[in-house]
Write a structure and sequence with these properties.
With about 325 residues, the protein is of the alpha/beta class. It is built from eleven helices and twelve strands. It has a five-stranded mixed sheet with strand order 3-2-1-4-7, sandwiched between helices. Strands 10-9-8-11-12 form a five-stranded mixed sheet, with helices on both faces. Strand 2 and strand 3 form a beta hairpin.
């Protein structure tokens, strides 16, 4: 029998775990999601995920490996979650081994930002550039590094944590407990905090944001993107400032790593040009012209990159682990 060129990709969030069967070209063949229900524990989760995948297999969906993408500090060597803010009580549980045993297949496991960057790198960057820096902009800010065309994990699997590199001193408080992290400015909570401040300073209350979201407690970055598209000056300014902070974080990595490309992923990246233009402008102003003109900026398009990266990595590295 020829080897099956498809894998299951699983993106485990605090509320839902999204799962798909993905072929070697990164195409999503089928998909579903289950409630993560972290309080029921990791063993219960593995049993429910394995039941779903076994049902798919019984229906004829073939896959030869599985990849797990998880937000948090992941020990990808041991297949253990060291720490995850969304999955309390799962720390130390051998998640990869448990799923591999339940499915009787090789399973790989890594941080969700690493795998989202890997998925976007493998499916959206033409010519497979040698060195790529990726940043994921969502509730939190994560990152991933591709060096020498391989996912770079560092000495303990913790590489690429761009969200907690510092862009202000002392700066605003980050969810991690430190001050001045990029995430405290460009994570969705940082963006919303700056938008509320700007609205409070606005004398006439004329921003379209107030109409789009009358209850400012419910304000989200998507409201800013929409207001910016309609010409709202305040929303554009908050997004420009977001781009400025992202540019500071990325420019530090460009100087250290000299990448061919910089990938921007995640929900906040849907702000499009309003976010990308200030990053481009910042890069153009840098005195070290060569590394900044080499580092091509690209917004990743596929919102499923985490699952796709998990499945592709499983196909590439899953054998024999
Ligand atoms: Zn932080």
């Amino acid at each position: 029998m020829p080897p099956i060129k498809a894998a299951a990709g699983i993106d485990v969030g605090g509320t839902f775990a999204k799962v798909g069967i993905i072929d070697a070209s990164g195409r999503l063949l089928r998909e579903d999601k289950i409630a993560t229900e972290p309080a029921r524990g990791p063993q219960d989760f593995v049993a429910r995920m394995a039941a779903l995948l076994s049902a798919w297999r019984a229906e004829g969906s073939a896959f030869s490996a599985a990849g797990l993408a998880i937000a948090g500090d992941v020990d990808s060597e041991k297949g253990i979650l060291r720490f995850s803010p969304n999955l309390e009580g799962w720390d130390g549980f051998p998640l990869r081994g448990a799923l591999a045993k339940a499915l009787r297949l090789p399973v790989v496991m890594d941080n969700d930002a690493n795998l989202a960057v890997w998925g976007a790198y493998r499916t959206e960057l033409k010519g497979k550039p040698e060195n790529v820096v990726g940043v994921t902009l969502g509730t939190g800010v994560g990152g991933g590094l591709v060096l020498g065309r391989r996912l770079y994990r560092g000495s303990t699997g913790s590489a690429g944590e761009i969200g907690h590199t510092r862009v202000e001193v002392p700066g605003e408080l980050c969810h991690c407990g430190m001050r001045g992290c990029l995430e405290a400015y460009a994570g969705s909570y940082g963006i919303v905090r700056r938008a509320r401040l700007a609205l409070a300073r606005e004398p006439r209350g004329g921003s379209r944001l107030r109409r789009l979201c009358p209850d400012l407690k419910l304000l989200e970055p998507a409201h800013l993107s929409e207001a910016a598209r309609h010409g709202d000056a305040l929303a554009r300014e908050v997004l420009r400032e977001t781009g400025f902070y992202v540019a500071i974080g990325l420019s530090n990595l460009v100087l250290v790593l000299n990448p061919d490309a910089v990938l921007i992923l995640g929900g906040v990246s849907r702000a499009g040009r309003w976010l990308l233009d200030p990053i481009e402008a910042y890069f153009k102003k840098q005195p070290f012209k060569v590394p900044f003109s080499r580092a091509k900026l690209k917004l990743a398009e596929n919102p499923n990159a985490g699952r796709i990266g998990a499945a592709l990595l499983a196909l590439e590295e899953g054998r024999g682990r």
